């Protein structure tokens, strides 16, 4: 079987990197990155066997944070698609149930 293993890069027509994906035995695993056409980082995802696990982040084209959450066992903790989350400054989130 031809399962992907290692780093796969995709490019824009201008030659800039569009995405970088890490594969292990055909599944995306580890840090995945996506960039805007201008080379600015757009998204960072952490995956484990193809599923979100750990810190997930995305930015708007203007550089403002758009998505910032932790994924654990299929659950999301934090801000997902929170248009105003970039306005938070030096605030800490505390979870009532730390399982």
3D structure, described in words:
Strands 1, 2, 3, 4, 5, 6, 7, 8 and 9 form a nine-stranded antiparallel β-sheet that branches. The chain has strands at residues 6-11, 17-24, 27-28, 30-35, 41-48, 51-52, 54-59, 65-72, 75-79. Mean pLDDT is 83; it is low at 83-89. Strand 4 (30-35) and strand 5 (41-48) form a beta hairpin. It has no helices and nine strands. Helices cover 0% and strands 52% of the residues. It starts with 5 loop residues before the first strand and ends in a 20-residue tail after the last strand. The protein has one domain (6-87). With 99 residues, it is mostly beta strands.
> Based on DSSP secondary structure assignment, what is the total number of beta strands?
9
**Derived structural class:** mainly beta
Oligomer: single chain
Q: Mind telling me the C-alpha Rg?
A: 15 Å
Mean pLDDT: 83
Q: Mind summarizing the main beta sheet?
A: 9 strands, antiparallel
Question: What is the rounded distance between the termini?
Answer: 39 Å
List the helices and strands in order: EEEEEEEEE
Our count of helices gives 0
Sum up the overall morphology in one term: flat
Stretches where pLDDT falls below 50 for ≥5 residues?
83-89
What proportion of the residues is helical, as a percent range? under 10%
Residue fraction in strands: over 45%
Total domain count: 1
Element layout with pairings:
Layout: E1 6-11, E2 17-24, E3 27-28, E4 30-35, E5 41-48, E6 51-52, E7 54-59, E8 65-72, E9 75-79
Antiparallel strand pairs: 1-2, 2-3, 2-4, 4-5, 5-6, 5-7, 7-8, 8-9
């Amino acid at each position: 079987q031809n399962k992907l293993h290692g780093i796969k890069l995709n490019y824009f027509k201008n030659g800039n990197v569009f995405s970088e994906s890490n594969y292990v035995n055909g599944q995306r695993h580890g840090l995945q990155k996506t960039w805007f056409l201008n080379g600015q980082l757009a998204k960072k995802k952490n995956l484990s066997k193809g599923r979100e696990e750990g810190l997930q982040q995305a930015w708007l084209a203007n550089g403002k944070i758009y998505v910032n959450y932790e994924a654990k066992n299929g659950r999301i903790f934090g801000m997902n698609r929170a248009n105003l989350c970039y306005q938070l400054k030096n605030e800490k989130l505390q979870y009532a149930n730390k399982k």
